[in-house]
Amino acid sequence: MSVWFDVARIATGLNVLFLLALSYVWVRNYAEFRSKHTLGLLMFSLFLLAENAFALYIYLVDPTLSGWFASEVPAIAWRGMMALHVLETVGVGFLLWVTWD
Q1: Are 3 and 36 in contact (CB under 8 A)?
Q2: 56 in helix, strand or coil?
Q3: Which residues contact 4 (CB under 8 A, 6 or more apart)?
Q4: Exposure string (b/e) for 20-42, b if CB count within 10 Å is 16 or more?
Q5: Tally of domains within the chain
Q6: How confident is the model over 34-75, as pLDDT tens digits?
Q7: pLDDT in tens, 77-98
Q8: Using the 8-state DSSP alphabet, how is residue 61 labeled?
């Protein structure tokens, strides 16, 4: 297993957890206020959650793709993918912090 693969999986797992928390807050807010802004935030979180859940499925569950990603993808590509996942985790984590506060 590549260290980049592990970092990408951890970052994607954190993204899923963060987005579930954000979705919970925004569903609750939309139920109370019925504003389009909150609905937009909720839809954003659901689509991003679907993307991250699919990536996590590929990284952890799918036998063909997880093996291919773990062994055949060049390190330079993994560094790029890992950087994107980590940057997304930082951004979504900050959004969670601001929203939860």
Answers
A1: no
A2: helix
A3: 75, 78, 79, 81, 82
A4: eebbebbeebbeeeeeeebeebb
A5: 1
A6: 999 999 999 999 999 999 999 999 989 998 988 887 788 888
A7: 888 989 999 999 999 999 999 9
A8: T
pTM for the complete prediction? 0.91
Distance (Å, whole) CA 63 – CA 61: 6
Please report, as a single letter, which amino acid is at residue 37.
H
Q: What angle do CA 26, 51, 84 make, to 5 degrees?
A: 100
Are the beta carbons of 52 and 95 closer than 8 angstroms? no
Nearest to 2 by CA among 101, 92, 73: 73
DSSP 6: H
Q: Which two tokens stand for residue 7?
A: 């970092």
CB 24 within 8 A of CB 97: no
Look up the domain containing 66 and give its range: 3-100
C-alpha torsion sign, points 64, 70, 72, 75: positive
